[in-house]
């Protein structure tokens, strides 16, 4: 199994499966992520995550089967589903009895990517309406791919050939780098959307110094963001980059741009003293309304 220290372009992919429709959608997306990385796919499931009748999510069981046996059935179905789509993938099925959030955080701490579906049953009920998805998003230390499953038809087939990233300042370099790497993995173009002004867009605290003009600060920070992208463009010279600055509300611009993207990459900030990240208004809006899956990149920053 590929662990920490792997190439940033590759690395193990973890997907949380609670047996719901959205979780199967997330599994299918996770297969594609593992294929692009030529890496191991780890499927994590636990019987406490599915607090509902298993028949409702397509698992036919016998009356005498225990919850653990049902969970094993879900995992077998998942492994078989992956084998049909990508027989070349190495798949690691992991059965656990632990709570979803700490277990996925533990397993995913050295993974290249963790994938979850939202509006799942039990364990992942509604990323923004339930507690599990929010807790996972707030505490993950690794990239998290969120696949909204409440309206599966909202996601068209992958094939736009475009990665979209939203950044504000040079502090978002990790998100920009991930976006460039994702463009390489997909053989895709990259669209960079800069926020025109900084106002806690992607979460975290962004206090304005009392002696610095807000407009001057915004101009300086935007220049820093442009420098980061320029440097990455030289490093990943095979990636075609299109840059755009929005001077209005960035959330509608990102959501609209997501119509022609295969994935959106967003930074999510937290201070050194904070227990978790704060999802800002733009992140919330994009998670709610994006027309493609969203990758959240955690970014630590001193207060």
Gyration radius, rounded: 19 Å
Q: What would you give as the CATH superfamily of the largest domain?
A: HUPs
Number of strand elements: 10
- CATH topology of the largest domain, which one? Rossmann fold
Q: Whole-Å distance between the termini? A: 36 Å
- Given the C-alpha coordinates, what overall shape results? globular
**Assigned CATH class of the largest domain:** Alpha Beta
Low-confidence stretches: 1-8, 51-57, 120-130
Q: Give a short account of the largest sheet.
A: 10 strands, mixed
**Strand percentage:** 15-25%
CATH architecture of the largest domain: 3-Layer(aba) Sandwich
Number of domains: 2
Secondary-structure element string: EHEHEHEHEEHEHEHEHE
Helix/sheet category: alpha/beta
Strand order, sheet with most strands = 3-2-1-4-5-10-9-6-7-8
User: Helical stretch count?
Assistant: 8
**Helicity level, as a percent range?**
25-40%
Mean pLDDT: 80
Protein architecture, described:
With 303 residues, this protein is an alpha/beta fold. The chain folds into two domains: 13-154, 3-Layer(aba) Sandwich (Rossmann fold), CATH 3.40.50.620; 162-301, HUPs (Rossmann fold), CATH 3.40.50.620. Helix content is 35%, strand content 20%. Strands 3-2-1-4-5-10-9-6-7-8 form a ten-stranded mixed sheet, sandwiched between helices. Helix 4 (131-139) links the parallel strand 4 and strand 5 (144-148). Helix 5 runs parallel beside helix 6 (214-235). The model is unreliable at 1-8, 51-57 and 120-130 (pLDDT under 50). Residues 12-148, 162-298 form the UspA domain. Belongs to the universal stress protein A family. This is Putative stress-inducible protein.
């Amino acid at each position: 199994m590929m662990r920490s220290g792997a190439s940033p372009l590759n690395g193990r992919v973890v997907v949380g499966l609670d047996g719901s429709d959205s979780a199967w959608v997330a599994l299918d997306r996770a297969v594609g992520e593992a294929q692009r990385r030529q890496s191991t796919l780890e499927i994590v499931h636990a019987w406490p995550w599915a607090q509902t009748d298993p028949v409702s999510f397509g698992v036919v069981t016998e009356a005498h089967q225990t919850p653990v046996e049902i969970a094993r059935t879900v995992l077998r179905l998942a492994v078989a589903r992956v084998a049909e789509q990508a027989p070349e993938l190495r798949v690691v099925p992991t059965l656990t009895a632990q709570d979803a959030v700490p277990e996925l955080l533990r397993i995913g701490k050295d993974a290249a990517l963790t994938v979850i579906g939202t509006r799942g049953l039990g364990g992942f009920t509604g990323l923004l309406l339930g507690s599990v998805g929010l807790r996972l998003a707030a505490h993950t230390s690794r990239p998290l791919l969120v696949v909204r499953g409440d309206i599966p038809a909202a996601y068209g087939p992958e094939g736009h050939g475009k990665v979209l990233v939203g950044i504000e300042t040079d502090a978002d370099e990790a998100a920009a780098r991930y976006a460039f790497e994702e463009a390489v993995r997909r053989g895709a173009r990259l669209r960079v959307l800069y926020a025109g002004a900084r106002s806690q867009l992607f979460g975290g605290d962004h206090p304005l110094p009392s002696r610095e003009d807000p407009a001057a600060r915004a101009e300086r920070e935007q220049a820093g963001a442009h420098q980061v992208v320029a440097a990455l463009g030289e490093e990943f010279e095979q990636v075609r980059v299109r840059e755009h600055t929005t001077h209005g509300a960035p959330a509608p611009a990102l959501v609209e741009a997501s119509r022609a993207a295969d994935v959106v990459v967003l930074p999510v900030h937290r201070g050194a003293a904070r227990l978790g990240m704060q999802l800002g208004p733009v992140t919330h809006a994009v998670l709610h309304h994006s027309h493609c899956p969203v990758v959240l990149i955690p970014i630590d920053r001193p207060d």
